[in-house]
User: What shape does this take?
Amino acid sequence: MTVATNANPNLLVGSRRRQRREDAIRGVFLTAGLSSMLISVAIVFSLLGESVSFLNNIELSSLWTSGWFPRQGKFDLSTLFVGSLIVTGVAMIIAAPLGLGAAVFLAEYAPTRVRKILKPILEILAGIPSIVLGFFAFRWIAPNVVQNLSDQATLFSLMSAGIGVGILVTPLVASVSEDALRAVPRTLREASYGVGARKVTTTLRVVFPAAISGIVASLILATSRAIGETMVVALAAGGSGGTQFTSNPFDEGQTITAAMAALAAGTDAVAGGGGTGAGAAFQSLFFLGLLLFLITLLLNFVADRVVRRLREAY
Assistant: This one.
């Protein structure tokens, strides 16, 4: 048996037509990848200029006042941040146990026929428009749930908005967590059963820890979604014309996104007219948008670091 030592290296390259096709496909994918970065940079620059102008046109002390009343020159950021934290916290208290419970049931306990029925129903809940959940929050959740928890609660409160947002993000937690649980190799379950472990022990001590990176990612993703939700909070939390600072979830309040929606609805803010106060109110939209973008970017970085650290390879 002889081995050719003078083989033509061009034979290993392939046809030029195939190379051109591969180069074209590589260029398309590179363009798609770079476009997302360019869009993000464009968003930052479009917000940055007006945000700097906003900070230059106001007294910095107005960023720490008694409430959020932009058309009166009061831009208290703590009012919006605390409102966002309350709504997001209530939403995750609702979504985390419900979503994880649904995910565990679908992945570990539900028969195949039941799973094929329940999984689409759960995903339909994710497709309900947020404005519908907003109406549901102040027309049913507020009078039947929130007002039974506190006599001082009105139809509009941060609590009812948080419960509505929690219902909204529950399918997200359930879907991503269920995919993470089903991705755990079957051999781990069989090994646990082989040493005599029960179903619940296998689920909680073997499968759940093995899928922890995907579960944490689902919770962080749901948190980002809850922070960015607008319509449910705009309808159910109240405070559309401005709100005093409050840390009571049963009071009216605003989040960052709801404040932007309420402010953008005013014609004087959109046009930037009506005097210096209206101009500053208009520019505050860009400032809030920049803050929201940075918060979302930070959460994405945290999620990436956590997932990389907790990820298990099998």
Notes: DSSP finds twelve helices and three strands in the chain. The radius of gyration is 26 Å. Confidence is low (pLDDT under 50) at residues 271-276.
